[in-house]
Amino acid sequence: MSVLTLVRHGQATAFQKDSDRLSGIGEQQARRLGIHWLKHGIRFDEIYTGTLVRQIRTEQLLAAAYGEEGVAWPSAHATGGFNEYDAAGVLSRIVPALAAADERFAALVDAFESARETPDRNRVFQRMFEIAMRAWARAEVSTEGVEPWPVFRARVREALQQVMQGSGNRRVAVFTSGGPIGLAVQTAMGAPDSLFLEVNWRVRNCSITEFVFSGGRFTLDSFNTIPHLDEGALWTYR
Fold first, then answer.
1. How far apart are alpha carbons 16 and 14 in whole angstroms?
2. What per-residue confidence (pLDDT) applies to 16?
3. Does the reported pTM lie above 0.90?
């Protein structure tokens, strides 16, 4: 039986011009994970990442932690299959389309714009984004210029299949994002597509989700654990 460990990247710089990089907290989260795995003697046979900066940087910090202790860390293979869904496209195309068609949603968008510099911005953003993401997943509006849900689902599942190919018992780590992790959980459980988003919202930064696989078997073993983050200040979702 082989083990697949999916790690969500550390906290990124949300709401900033360059959001595809780790925040200071995100870097701390990744280093803590490296220390935790080293302490418990966890080793991997293969490492994969998406191609986003925040995913690659998270893996690099783990590799550095292992290197400092003289412990082998396999070279990472980067593939776009583990990239996040097109959140920027949802915000730039689907949100305006929904606002143009629905006055209540337009008011929510206005509320977010007004809350940008207040403590409420995350809460208001989440309400707006959840509605937009449901519309994206259900193809309720045009997805022109945005990667459609079926394409996202297919590429992540293909990436998972490629990783799980091979013989023998292996331990594999993938540094990815909340969307692919939510989809992997939904796939393992054989659940409806709607579960993907519900799981996605709960994935913490730098959390660990594990599966066991062998042949055609793909089973969820643990979800969203953060044993390496023992301070509440390091518990983040965005």
1. 5
2. 63
3. yes
